[in-house]
Amino acid sequence: MSFTKFYRPQNVIPKIIRTAQNTIFNLSWINSVYLKVLVPVTLLVLWEVACREGFLKPLILPAPTAIAKAFVVQIESGDLFRDIGISLLRIIQGYAIGAFFGLTIGILIGIFKRIDQATSVVLSFLRPIPIFAWLPVIILWLGIDEITKVIIIALGCFWPILLNVIAGIKNVDKKYLEVARILEKNRYQTLIKVVFPSALPSIFTGLRIGIGMAWMCVVAAEMIAATSGIGFLISYSREMLQPDVMFVGVFSIGIVGLIIDRIFKLLEQHFIKWNANMKRQ
Amino acid sequence: MDTLESLIIKNLNKIYKAENGDVHALKDVSLSIKPGEFVSIVGTSGCGKSTLLRLIVGLENDYSGEIKLGGKQIKGPDINRGMVFQEARLFPWLTAEENIAFGLVDKKISSKEKKRIVEEHIELVNLNGFAKSYPHQLSGGMQQRVSIARALVNYPKLLTLDEPFGALDALTRLQMQQEFLRIWEKEKTTVLLVTHDVDEAIYLADRVVVLSSRPGTISKIINVNASRPRDRNSCAFSDIKKAIYKELFKEDDQLIEYII
Asked: What is the pTM of this model?
């Protein structure tokens, strides 16, 4: 009995070494939450030290503490929230228009083969054109009013929503359709009970990518044609040589974007409870 | 029994048109099934047994010959003919009871009546307590139970099953065969089961139809007279099994020896 035990490979390595190996290579003792925080904190500390030691000029990249101070000033004065509010309002308007058209046209194209064929050339011609290429065109037509920004946002979120709605509806599993056929469901019932539910995850993906696009578009539009909003705050503080305020603007976009994405994820989980793939993430 | 009617297939031919020549999937298939009868079809893969089922339920219409249920030629799907697939094909966005109720949606009966029928069928397939579960929360065997219940809610005259237990593990498969027998004895509907499991065919059916491949033709129909539940180890069972294997491998030079 001791003979076989002796020849087991792991017993060849002394116990002390084995324990040491386990503690070094097995990182389970670090809580995953700490692990997530560890990297950003290290980066911030390095950044701060680099600024204090003079490796980085404050005019190019201010220290994290300087940006934090500017953040507090901006919040206290109410300027930051005012600008974020203005940008958000534009997003809501543009997104509502873009999502409305993206959903409607997408559903029509997904369901009716004739509409799909009729629009395919026009859509595949328009799709590769970047949104920002339209910006001068729209300024020429509509000036630099609110409507310009709203239309740019609407255009930006229209495409991802449209494409994902079409893909979701077209990719419905043929096997599910056969079940509906065998149970003698009519076209309408099949659409409502089978096609739309199965397209829902894809539609939500489109809506989420769309809101991300909307956020990108509003900032771009505000940098070029606006006197308010978060994009304007960034470009204006560059002109005013206030890099700390500039970074406040840049990071605010990150924070608000993150919050919006979380809200969409929650909505998605609420509406598509059945999607087992999503829960596993 | 008035509500049940015979399925009659006469000189059925099915040809798939392909670029490199036509494929004769079924050739001169004739078969009649009495009301309430349990018939199994066995055959090697690609022999056209699934095609036969798809023609009978009406998922495919392009055929020559006759398929009649209750005297009427079959033209398309009809709730009188139910089907259970190898994969349960449950809608993942609906709970077990909603999946079962899907079969009833556009029926003109009160919602109270619908609820009663669904509850009755949940009980029939022994899924009490799982009505509110989503398909991904159910095991493979349970999913197939839901699928069987969904096919039965319309009280079809004919239930077809396309390798329904093929994707289940060996133990669950045996359990499901027993369960299905219980369900059939209770419902007394006509059943046509396609399988590649010879044991399963003999254990369940009144008659076993052996389909040979390319083109798919009926090479033999074997009656199983033993009373249920059947003993898989009995002599009679082995004899039938031997006869079926002989039929299945008759084109091969040697009969496979280890089958018995």
From this structure: 0.79
